[in-house]
Amino acid sequence: MRKRSKIILISLSLLSGVILALGWPEKGFPGLLFIGLVPLLFMEDAISQNHERFVSFSVLFYSWPGFLAWNALTTWWIYNSTGIGSLLAIILNSLFMAIIFEAFHFSKKKFKSTYYGYICLVLYWISFEFLHLNWDLNWPWLNLGNGFAHYYTWVQWYEYTGALGGTLWILISNILVFELVKALPVRAFSSFLPKRETLSPKWLIPALIVWIGFPLIFSIIRYNSYKEKKDPVSVVVVQPNLDPYTEQYSVPPNQVISRIMNLAAPELDSNVQFLVTPESAIQEDMWENDLQSFLSVQLLKDIAGKYPDLNMILGGSTFRMFKPGEKLTHSARKFRNGDGYYDAYNAAIMINSLPGLQLYHKSKLTPGVESMPSFGIFKFIEKYAINLGGTVGSLGTDDIRRVYKTVKAPPASAVICYESTFGEFFSRFVRNGAQVMFIITNDGWWGNTPGYRQHFSFASLRAIENRRSIARSANTGISAFINQRGDPIQKTPYWVPVALKGTINANSGLTFYTRHGDYIARAAVLTGLPLLLISFFLPGEKRKKLKTSFRNGKNNKHI
Questions:
Q1: CATH code of the domain in which 457 resides
Q2: β-sheet bridge partners, residue 491
Q3: In what order do the strands lie in the sheet with 412-416?
Q4: Same structural domain, 367 and 463
Q5: Same domain flag for 87 and 218
Q6: Is 297 left (phi over 0), alpha (psi -120 to 50) or beta?
Q7: 50: Cα separation from own chain's centroid
């Protein structure tokens, strides 16, 4: 019976992983996310009700397979760029999730209250997602609120809560469904779990309908009633389709500029206000101490001279040499054949008729590619750094979210690739004054997989959160224009070199979320951390010694 019990618990865990994966963008149906954690809650409840029969950390051990399945089924495409790196990402992220589930079980047991346990689950999980947005091993890809990226009409209220509001929606929905299933006279569950007091379906059913239904109805009404204020901005985005594995870092800069302009030229005229190219489009290893001397910059300045009202945003790799005595950053690198130091950057460069160049340095760096862990326990990951052809190792970052000064166009900002998955980070550009937003990215590393399609869908959430139109330039992914409701109004096919011309509306208003950011997460951290600390000091129940008959697997009628 004990072997059968283990199989049942692992099966419940794996079932959760599969349901969550089936609910994930871009092919999944997000309604499944409302029940995805229910099998895991049954698994935890079975262990909780029979805790004397299980060793410590059983919830962690049994929940890990489910989270491993969810991570593997939804982010397996990382393998296209690195085998070891993808395994580490999947294993570590699923382990972190299992630790959160174990912490929920631990606090529930210490508080001796199922409902205090539920509060802890919600607070701990949201705190974990917030941590995942703000530490060296950041990987917010599977934050639960991102699950509605392809069904963005369901979450127009993200302009008030951000994507973490979606996480709260999913967590409480799962708890209500779990309590409802337990309360129903279903033979399969009544024979599996020991009897204990449950909440009445008389209020669970209405509560569940209201909790899921009200946000949906509000969102649909908001989607259909939202009207953009007319403030047109003419934009051309270029998808040059430089193969990141064979071309991007070997084609001479003048040929890259030529390819970009051959695509863009037919679409350019005196009315176009922005020309946007992808992340890392220019690979000339330009030194910021003397940018004007580089061929790529000179060629682009010549183009700007032909279109004096054009604002060009280009992705490139830049470097900056530290002056003697200047304070070094944590990412500073020493010259191999000298005593000086320098920083390397993934940059978005603004070139227009104004004097000088405007630079923004990517600041949410991809772990294992652009950022190495700075704390001891995870330092071993550094030797598995993913080499995507450019500069490997920790890059320099910016302290501010830059808004470009433009010529005859609204203030604008560009976020680079991975940065578009960070809600509050994205909103800081808007709060600083950006009226239109650009995403420049290079999604070709993952091949024709769900990776680039998932990444593209996340842009709709950023548009809703801030009510900003977005122009997206991808090297080998999907380039598009996205309106303030999250609708892609024009988009390119995958792996096709093309320039796309369109009009998007600028907006100067600030949403509640733009002004206040991830306030839900901060509230969760401020309340969840004290609860976790308190639970450590509460007396626990003494584990009863197992009788011989029980150790032999007898009297196991509930598990």
A1: 3.60.110.10
A2: 480
A3: 412-416, 436-441, 470-474, 480-482, 488-491
A4: yes
A5: yes
A6: alpha
A7: 37
